[in-house]
């Protein structure tokens, strides 16, 4: 039980110092071992707790819930990535983890449903990798490509390449239908932004940075996603930001080693068939 408490306290603070002090001076080495064991154990539950809607009936329900938010039809999930700060992993590949904002991170992709549940997570990519690359190599994209998931789509921002199963906003809407499409797209896609906000407020370690070994950091991310979903299912109260923690990390800020010269490749606006599909979709549903 104490190991579980150590792990949960670390997720809630992101600080070895606070975790050790709160639990009666447990050594840093012991705290690290507890965090690793607890995180591995909770993360192993992911395949049962973090599940993409698998049946037609499950997808129908999700689509209906999204439609009730923003009047955008056929949405089975909203997709985006977020950067989780980490310490430098060291080694010859360390700079690969430095993102375009100049700090070390893991770029984590999630798909949210209308209730802010995490329906899919990819937590293995370095901070320099672009969002569109992560999706291109994901199992979810393969399922859409093989039409194992059909007659529905994801909503993403313009960091993603437009396709028939990932709909992005019009960069320059020309008609009322395209403008209406964009308005409904923004309202609906906002769910994934809200999901990230709730997830990080619930587990501030994700916001303030993980000072653990790389493999443990990966497990922590998945473990907190599992716990986030359990909280949503249990109708747990939405968390507020802990001002004490904010002040603590302002005084003891992670060394981010900023490098403003790191660039990023854009996702692109899709090929001609995808552009034509989006135009027809907007005209059909938003004219």
From TrEMBL:
Name this protein carries in UniProt: Nuclease HARBI1
InterPro entries for this protein: HARBI1-like (IPR045249), HARBI1_dom (IPR027806)
Membership in a protein family: Belongs to the HARBI1 family.
PANTHER family according to UniProt: DDE TNP4 DOMAIN-CONTAINING PROTEIN-RELATED, PTHR22930
Keywords attached to this entry: Hydrolase, Metal-binding, Nuclease, Nucleus
Transmembrane segments: none
Domain named DDE Tnp4: residues: 79-229
Predominant localisation class: nucleus
Subcellular localization(s) per the UniProt record: Nucleus
GO MF annotation: an example: nuclease activity
GO CC, alphabetical: nucleus
Pfam families, sorted: DDE_Tnp_4 (PF13359)
Natural source organism: Cacopsylla melanoneura
Obligatory cofactor(s): a divalent metal cation
């Amino acid at each position: 039980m104490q190991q579980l408490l150590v792990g949960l306290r670390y997720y809630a603070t992101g600080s070895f110092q606070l975790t050790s002090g709160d639990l009666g001076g447990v050594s840093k080495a012991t705290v690290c071992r507890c965090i690793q064991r607890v995180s591995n154990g909770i993360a192993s539950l992911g395949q049962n707790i973090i599940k993409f809607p698998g049946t037609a009936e499950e997808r129908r329900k999700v689509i209906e819930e999204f439609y009730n938010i923003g009047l955008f039809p056929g949405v089975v999930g909203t997709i985006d990535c977020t950067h989780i700060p980490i310490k430098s992993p060291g080694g010859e590949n360390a700079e690969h983890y430095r993102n375009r904002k100049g700090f070390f991170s893991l770029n984590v992709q999630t798909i949210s449903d209308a209730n802010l549940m995490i329906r899919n997570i990819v937590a293995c990519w370095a901070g320099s990798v672009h969002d569109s690359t992560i999706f291109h190599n994901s199992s979810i994209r393969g399922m859409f490509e093989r039409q194992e998931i059909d007659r529905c789509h994801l909503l993403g921002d313009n960091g993603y390449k437009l396709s028939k199963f990932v709909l992005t906003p019009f960069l320059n809407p020309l008609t009322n239908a395209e403008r209406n499409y964009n308005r409904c797209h923004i309202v609906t896609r906002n769910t994934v932004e809200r999901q990230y906000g709730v997830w990080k407020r619930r587990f501030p370690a994700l916001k303030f940075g993980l000072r653990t070994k790389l493999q443990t950091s990966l497990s922590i991310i998945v473990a907190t996603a599992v716990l986030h979903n359990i909280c949503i299912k249990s109708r747990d109260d939405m968390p507020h930001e802990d001002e004490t923690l904010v002040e603590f990390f302002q005084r003891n800020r992670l060394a981010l080693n900023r490098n403003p010269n790191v660039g990023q490749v854009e996702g692109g606006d899709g090929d001609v068939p995808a552009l034509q599909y989006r135009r027809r979709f907007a005209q059909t549903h938003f004219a």
